[in-house]
Design brief:
By secondary structure, the chain is an alpha/beta fold. It is built from twelve helices and 19 strands. Homodimer. Only the dimer is catalytically active, as the active sites are constructed of residues from both monomers.
Amino acid sequence: MKVTNLDERIHVLDNESNVTTVIKDIAMSGLQEDAFYVLDIGDIVQKHQIWKEKMPRVEPYYAVKCNDNLIVLEVLAALGTNFDCASKNEINKVLSLGVEPSRIIFANPAKPASHIRHAAAVGVDTMTVDNESELHKIKKLFPMAKIVLRIRCDAEVAQCQLGMKFGCDPIHEAPNLLRLAYNLGLNLVGFSFHVGSGCQDAPVFLRAIHHCKILFDMATELGFNPYLLDLGGGYPGNKGTSIDKISEIINEALDEYFNTDAVHVIAEPGRFYVASAFTLATSIHSKRAIRGEENTNAITHNMYYINDGVYGSFNCLLYDHQHVTPIPLKNGCGKLIPSSVWGPTCDGLDKIVENIMLHDLELGEWMIFENMGAYTLPVASPFNGFPVPKFHKIEDTCVYFKADLII
């Protein structure tokens, strides 16, 4: 593949092309200086196929906050995926693609009043709640809304814990909220939970689903007709990870506690779909060699400064607790040298990798970072005037055929 115009950001792969070859062609073209992404559409299609195979009963509602790239949303909408939105702007973005309001859940338990009014106006009527105040707010602003009560059930190990902010206690708080919803005349349709983003504690899903079963029975006794079970997020998506263990536990728990077609089961995967689909390429624009004692003059540490940092794509280090590994685009030789990698801004906080062994690299060489699709671009800013990386989309000729098969 020969790069002649970087404004043409769609690359169709042939049998000899892949993500790495596309990055090399762009990086070595002489036309590219800024950091850039390569988005592999086929990776998203493959993830959707995996989800449908592993958890055929669980309908995915993609968490837009994870990565709201328009092409990502278009591909997922075409695949039949539904959407988890957290604000009126996210709702509008999804609706602009022609997605029906019924395919959206407003899954933010703490919603500004104007956002609730907007959801009512555009027909997004399913929304989550975890406290008394929110129930009273919805009663006033959108009494016909379909209420999903979110409980707390935290994974012991997760990349981002969410229970400290959202989710009511399933044993003590949830029954009281059920009674309040009944007294207010609200339409409670189901229950949800979120075990934590990037969950590494698969058995937590069994505990959470069991809690929901108890609450389903309690709600039915009160006079509600619950039919929706929302399994939330927490599904890993990096290269080399798998949802096999989680899906096995979820399928077994559904068979045990919700073995009926009367219950509609959904989930809110985010990073599962997009983490591995985005690869970031950055170039070294500056370098500082730290030398040892005066009489040796040997380099003891190299500091590399690249053209993206924690105020850009690598905000994930601060907000998403990610760990990243730079991969030099060229194969090195000679001894490995202790090194650190820094972003381009004037802030000392802008450190990407503190200590890693790398071959000696020169100015203008490129480093790539895999698994950069989750919680990166949506939070990136042009601090200090450094641009947010643009992206190149790649797809192979069989992507559409695969998509047709999955749909």
